[in-house]
Design brief:
The complex is a heterodimer.
Chain A: H1 2-17, H2 28-40, H3 47-59, H4 63-71, E1 73-75, H5 80-84, E2 97-105, H6 109-116, E3 128-135, E4 149-160, E5 164-179, E6 182-191, E7 195-196, E8 203-216, H7 226-235, H8 239-251, E9 254-266, H9 274-298
Antiparallel strand pairs in A: 1-2, 2-9, 3-4, 4-5, 5-6, 6-8, 7-8, 8-9
Helix pairs in contact in A: 2-3, 7-8
Chain B: H1 2-30, E1 52-54, E2 60-62, E3 74-87, E4 97-111, E5 114-127, E6 135-152, E7 155-172, E8 177-197, E9 207-218, E10 222-226, E11 233-235, E12 248-259
Antiparallel strand pairs in B: 1-2, 3-4, 3-12, 4-5, 5-6, 6-7, 7-8, 8-9, 8-10, 9-12, 10-11
Classes of the chains: A alpha+beta, B mainly beta.
């Protein structure tokens, strides 16, 4: 009897231990850089922004750091000064917490930029019951870099955490910046006003995002073993193939996407631990990036990506405009 | 390997016990041993004592038409282990996946000829070509199961059906890669087996040995493909074709059950 009870305890303790854990906190330099880029995104003079992007590029040249960032970090602080520059509304940084995560795409930054500013972008988002985005200027020039800045307002409705419907309004900005490492694209958005959920007293008080897309060379990435590939395919269809594709994307030229998302959410009566919210946000960023890649893969003619020419050797980086995507 | 050996041993031992258990009861019944209340098997009540007779050694044991159902009512706990094998489903073709073992535990409330159980199991397959044990292939289920019992003299035959949480995952330590599938309600289990009363064989009252076969079917859910500790976890609606396939399982298990 005692054995059985002990066995139960062990089994259920195991279940409890396999729950969500908090991601590690981001290194201070990365966290500061992300806050800096969020603040300077709309600067008239891009000099500071350029320097920040180049520092970010340098930070991510360390394969180990990139590896950690692919799993996600917590970011705590977004400077109050970064919120003061957004619009004429009074905003507070208190109560904000956030995450950052990096993803590697096999597609060039121009293809991703083209997709993100595509007027029918909402048609590929099936987790929104409403997605309206109105650009203030024609965005079709942006993917090709015929213009370097576009801005939009969005009106969306989606189920937060899959449970609570929320209707939100955002301001969204896109910008290309030329650096000594090539062109990089920034995307910034923020929630215009706090939003109540339709049930459970959930409320989104604030949400701020900065995303950076930069062309990236191949990285050291050890291939998975044939035994694992076959066993993975054998258990869950085509997972071995898809993991192989990720390893290949990491080891070849493509683009690096760095996402940072700060939020202030009241979860109301829903007992969701903070760890779960953070992990879910990290997963969502990774999943969204994968959906974008899958869409680009299925529609190669829509935003063609010229042959990537990057080298894995940092020293060989060509600083010309068309180095990564001529 | 030791776990596999133990599982095989327990299964063989269990089958041996079941064979030796069935005979004395049948012989006793055949010899016209005294029966208790003839309605006991059709109207079992908690606390009903099985009929007993004195053996030549002076020990008491149940006779012929013992109502094993009667003292199996109420709350029960059980734990056991067994063997499982992978069943292909489309692109999830069970490649590199040899049969493996599992442990199980659960609790059940039995009434009338029915039981409502909460079953948990954790299992591991052997992976081919994995000489340095770098690859693990595991599965886990937690689900409510509705069972129906039919007492047959010293045996208690049961069938059951359940739906609930299921997870199947394959990991490679060296590359920190993971292929996994998780569902909160679309893992299905069909189970059938027999329960054997162990009291006549020297164990305290309330202990029974279950021998069962399970079919576990997996569908829907979320599928993760992670390389280097990171990667997407996508729902069914984001997957195409063979990406939605998940291998199923067939299992043979034994469990020691205690009825309170």
């Amino acid at each position: 009897m005692r054995f059985l009870l002990s066995f139960f305890l062990i089994v259920y303790a195991f279940g409890a231990l396999t729950g969500c854990n908090n991601p590690p906190t981001a290194p201070k330099d990365l966290e500061s850089l992300l806050g800096f880029l969020f603040e300077r995104m709309d600067d008239d003079d891009p000099e500071a922004l350029t320097t920040g992007l180049e520092n970010l590029y340098d930070w991510f040249q360390d394969d180990a750091q990139l590896g950690d960032a692919r799993e996600g970090f917590l970011v705590k602080n977004l400077p109050a000064s970064a919120l003061a520059v957004l619009d004429d509304k009074e905003r507070s940084a208190s109560g904000l917490e956030g995450i950052t995560v990096a993803t590697k795409s096999p597609y060039c930054s121009r293809a991703i930029a083209g997709l993100l500013t595509w007027e029918d972008f909402g048609s590929i988002l099936d987790n929104f019951t409403l997605y309206e985005r109105t650009f203030r200027t024609d965005p079709t020039c942006f993917g090709e870099r015929a213009c370097t800045q576009v801005e939009a307002d969005s009106h969306t409705r989606s189920a937060w955490a899959g449970l609570v419907e929320m209707e939100s309004k955002y301001t969204i900005q896109f910008r290309w910046v030329e650096t000594k490492y090539g062109w990089m694209m920034l995307q910034r958005f923020w929630l215009k006003d706090p939003v109540p959920g339709d049930s459970f007293d959930v409320r989104m008080n604030a949400n701020y995002y900065i995303g950076i897309v930069m062309d990236d060379g191949g990285r050291a990435a050890k291939p998975i073993s044939p035994a694992f590939r076959r066993a993975a395919n054998g258990a869950v269809g085509q997972t071995g193939r898809d993991i192989d594709a990720q390893q290949e994307a990491l080891s070849r030229a493509g683009s690096l996407r760095i996402h940072a998302n700060w939020f202030n959410v009241d979860t109301g009566v829903i007992p969701i631990p903070d760890e779960t919210i953070r992990s879910t946000l990290i997963s969502n960023q990774i999943n969204d990036s994968t959906r974008h890649d899958n869409w680009l893969g299925d529609n190669p003619e829509q935003f063609p990506c010229p042959q990537l020419m990057m080298s894995t050797d940092d020293d060989s980086v060509d600083q010309s405009d068309d180095r990564a995507d001529p | 390997m030791r776990l596999l050996f133990c599982t095989v041993w327990v299964l063989i031992a269990g089958l041996g016990i079941s064979t030796s258990l069935a005979n004395p009861a049948q012989e006793a019944a055949h010899d016209g041993a005294t029966q208790t209340d003839s309605d006991a098997s059709s109207q079992p009540e908690k606390g009903t004592k099985p009929a007993v007779e004195a053996t030549s050694s002076g020990q008491k044991r149940p006779v012929g038409d013992v109502d094993v159902a009667a003292h199996r009512k109420g709350f029960q706990l059980y734990g056991g282990l067994g063997l499982k094998t992978c069943i292909p489903d489309g692109a999830a073709d069970c490649s590199n996946t040899y049969p493996g073992t599992f442990i199980s535990t659960g609790m059940e409330y039995r009434f009338w000829y029915l039981g409502i159980a909460l079953d948990f199991d954790l299992g591991r397959y052997l992976v081919a070509e994995d000489d340095d044990f770098d690859v693990s292939s595991l599965s886990m289920h937690l689900m409510p199961v509705l069972k129906a019992y039919y007492p047959l003299k010293s045996l208690d035959v049961f069938v059951g059906f359940g739906m609930g949480y299921g997870q199947q995952w394959v990991t490679e330590d060296s590359s920190r890669s993971e292929a996994s599938w998780t569902t909160f309600w679309r893992a299905m289990k069909v189970t059938a087996g027999v329960g054997l009363d162990l009291e006549p064989y020297g164990l305290p009252a309330g202990f029974t040995l279950d021998l069962n076969a399970d079919l576990l079917m997996h569908s829907g859910g979320t599928r993760c493909a992670k390389y280097g500790g990171a990667g997407p976890c996508l729902d069914e609606k984001d997957l195409k074709g063979g990406q939605n396939d998940v291998a199923d399982q067939i299992r043979l298990g034994s469990a020691l059950r205690y009825s309170f």
